[in-house]
Amino acid sequence: MGSTSTYLNFERQTEEAFSFYKSVFGTEYVGGIMRHRDVPVPDGYPGPSEEDKDLIINVQLPILGGHILMGTDAPASMGFTINQGNNVHICLQPDTRAEAERLFNALSEDGQIEMPLQPMFWGGYFGSFRDKFGVHWMVNTASES
User: Are 17 and 10 in contact (CB under 8 A)?
Assistant: First the structure.
């Protein structure tokens, strides 16, 4: 059966971001953390610099409902340009308002709330924010309790 995941790129904050997400969701990484130093380098290609070898090339963290949050460090030193924007949102749909409030409050700490959690016209309890790492989140539950 197929699945869906969300992939996040950070300049050099993947480990910090995923440690934070791990603490919020209380789950464990799938397969551990793969670092740039772990990737075989083909003949004739330079490996990662000393500064970059401990950066994360892949990490996977289950969050809710089997969804996998994935991430990587994509530093400028390796030719990447990160543009944080509002083009990626992760939508969490917890079973209860209590869980919606817990996730919203924990993930939005030190971030910027765009819309506080509140009852909405479609019957949901909804809020949105950008976390302290620039990732956009939406929380929505249909539960009235």
Answer: yes
Q: What is the Cα–Cα distance from 28 to 21, expressed in whole angstroms?
A: 10
Helix (H) / strand (E) containing 20: helix 14-25
Query: Judging by beta carbons within 10 Å of its beta carbon (0-12, 13-18, 19+), is residue 145 exposed, middle or buried?
Result: exposed
Model confidence pLDDT, tens digit, residues 72-84: 998 888 888 888 7
Q: Which domains does the chain have, with CATH numbers?
A: 1-77 (3.10.180.10), 86-145 (3.10.180.10)
The predicted-structure confidence for 44-89, as pLDDT tens digits, reads as follows 888 889 999 999 999 999 999 989 999 999 888 888 888 877 668 8
Rounded to whole angstroms, the Cα distance separating 12 from 75 reads 6
Q: Which two tokens stand for residue 43?
A: 């003949």
Three-state DSSP state, 100: helix
